[in-house]
Design brief:
By secondary structure, the chain is of the alpha+beta class. The protein contains 13 helices and 19 strands. It is an enzyme of class 2 (transferase).
């Protein structure tokens, strides 16, 4: 790499110091942060850069090279590295992260030339300053503006480690030619594709399989992995020279109409993705049209065999459906138990026994609510606000006629895992019921807040308050013993119940939340 990093160009505000090393704030700045702080690029420019870096692994892999995106500083006094990508197909040049590094004008001549002349620069001999030969190229990043002049947003520095250079194979030559075409598209503002759907995390990558098509949609090169994928689809003929759209449609022949996306993707006419299935094999296709100089010169089609992945996804869907069915049946069984307890309570003539059974009905009911919610949830996570509101409503319905109070919720619980939802619902039920039965308040509120990965829940009322000398540790109340066991045992949380200064009682429980 020609030139050295400036020791004089320092940006204290971002904590970025140049001189061959980069220092960062405690929070590593994102691309958006760096663009907002140090450049004059606008929102549309930033969106374009986000689209570019979301898909430039493709360019890095085809180039066998590291990519660094440099943006001009305010006033164009220098450059700042705002993104970086390493290849998965070859050795890297940069073993350290250089995002946030600043270079003054003149220190990176190829970057300056690409920016000033608006062209790809490939001049210069390999640089040996790092101990290995590195070939550098620079690509101006252009954003086409409809009805206006194009905007140049920065420069991509493409650095290739030449330490393992050898006579290139047909695969490597195809990769490099495709990389050259993509680089030209970046310089012309044709890549990334405008309006394209976001690239999926599991989209095919270069190493999964690659086909190169000519402008007529015929295969001019097929990588070994791509050829193997088509063999598994049932192809026995040679793929090179064949019209990919016609071959793919024939392999997937059925009585159903041909998927329109299939023909578009397999012919490379549009930047899209699709899947084809034949003989139990599922292959994902992604087309990248190559448009250089205003004309379509061909396309790349990335291929990935996703048969095993889809099989696992189907298994997970089956397991999820089974788990939801189990929750549904548990809910039904709990409701049956609650109904039996309710019938038994009505037959009892002893008030204490009837009251004990009614409390058991409420406890079983709160658990049933959680399982009912889980039976409709796609995963083992639930929106606890819905559960809390039903528990609160249930507590108000069974309160004595003299109280006639519906508790109120302030704040949001959010989405919680079922391991937390069930004991928390039971604890909330007990606290509400205890307040309504013994405090006879006029107001009863549940206040929720999340602070530093802890869920804090406060249940307060303006009722009669706690008996004199009350101690939670020595309380004989079954309900409070249940709450304490749930909060401290199952939820690993803290529970306090104290008199409220304004009158009444306040119960505070705090539980740790699992990391996202």
């Amino acid at each position: 790499m020609s030139g050295v990093w400036s020791n004089e160009y320092i940006f204290q505000s971002a904590g970025l110091v140049v001189g061959g090393k980069t220092t960062h704030d405690a929070d590593v700045p994102t691309l958006s942060d760096l663009v907002a702080r140090h450049t004059a690029l606008d929102g549309a420019d930033l969106d374009w850069l986000h689209s570019l870096v979301s898909d430039w692994q493709l360019l890095a892999d085809l180039s066998f090279a590291d990519l660094v995106l440099w943006a001009p500083l305010l006033g164009e006094t220098g450059w700042i590295a705002i993104a970086q990508m390493r290849p998965t197909t070859g050795p890297t040049v940069y073993h350290d992260d250089i995002v946030g590094t600043i270079a003054a004008k003149g220190e990176r001549p190829l970057i300056d030339t690409a920016w000033n002349e608006r062209r790809i620069c490939r001049e210069g001999d390999p640089d040996w300053s790092t101990g290995v030969p590195v070939r550098e190229e620079t690509i101006p990043v252009r954003r086409a503006v409809e009805g206006g002049a194009a905007r140049f947003l920065g420069v991509i520095q493409r650095s290739t480690n030449l330490s393992s250079a050898r006579t290139p194979s047909r695969l490597e030559l195809t990769y490099l030619q495709s990389a050259s075409d993509l680089a030209q598209m970046v310089a012309e503002g044709r890549f990334p594709f405008s309006g394209e759907e976001p690239i999926l995390v599991r989209s095919p990558r270069v190493g999964d399989g690659l086909l190169r098509l000519d402008r007529a949609g015929r295969v001019t090169y097929a990588s070994p992995n791509a050829l193997s994928a088509y063999r598994r689809l049932g192809l026995h003929a040679d793929l090179v020279g064949a019209e990919l759209g016609r071959v793919t449609a024939a392999l997937c022949y059925s009585d159903e109409p041909i998927n329109e996306d299939l023909m578009i993707v397999a012919s490379g006419r549009a930047a899209k993705e699709t899947e084809v299935e034949s003989g139990g094999t599922i292959v994902q296709l992604r087309a990248i049209p190559l448009i250089v100089g205003g004309g379509r010169i061909g396309a790349l089609v990335l291929i990935r065999d996703v048969t095993e992945l889809r099989r696992r996804e189907r298994e997970l869907m089956t397991k999820d459906a089974t788990i939801r069915e189990i929750h549904h049946r548990v809910k039904n069984n709990l409701q049956t138990v609650a109904a039996l307890l309710r019938l038994q309570a009505r037959r009892l003539r002893v008030p204490e026994g009837r009251e004990a059974l009614e409390e058991a009905v409420r406890r079983v009911g709160s658990i049933a609510i959680v399982h009912e919610t889980l039976s409709h949830a796609p995963e083992e996570f639930v929106n606890f606000d819905e559960i809390a509101d039903r528990v609160i409503a249930m507590a108000g319905e069974v309160s004595s006629p003299e109280v006639a109070l519906t508790p109120r919720r302030v704040g949001e619980f959010g989405v919680l895992p079922s391991l937390i939802a069930t004991p928390l619902a039971m604890a909330l039920t007990e606290l509400l019921q205890n307040a309504l039965q013994h405090g006879r308040p006029k107001r009863l509120e549940v206040v929720v807040e999340t602070v530093l990965e802890r869920l804090n829940v406060t249940v307060w009322d303006d009722g009669a308050g706690l008996p004199e000398g009350f101690e939670l540790d020595s309380s004989t109340s079954l309900g409070l013993q249940i709450v304490r066991t749930l909060v401290e045992g199952e939820l690993s949380g803290r529970l306090t119940i104290e008199p409220r200064p304004q009158g009444g009682t306040v119960a505070d429980l705090s539980i740790p939340l699992p990391p996202c």
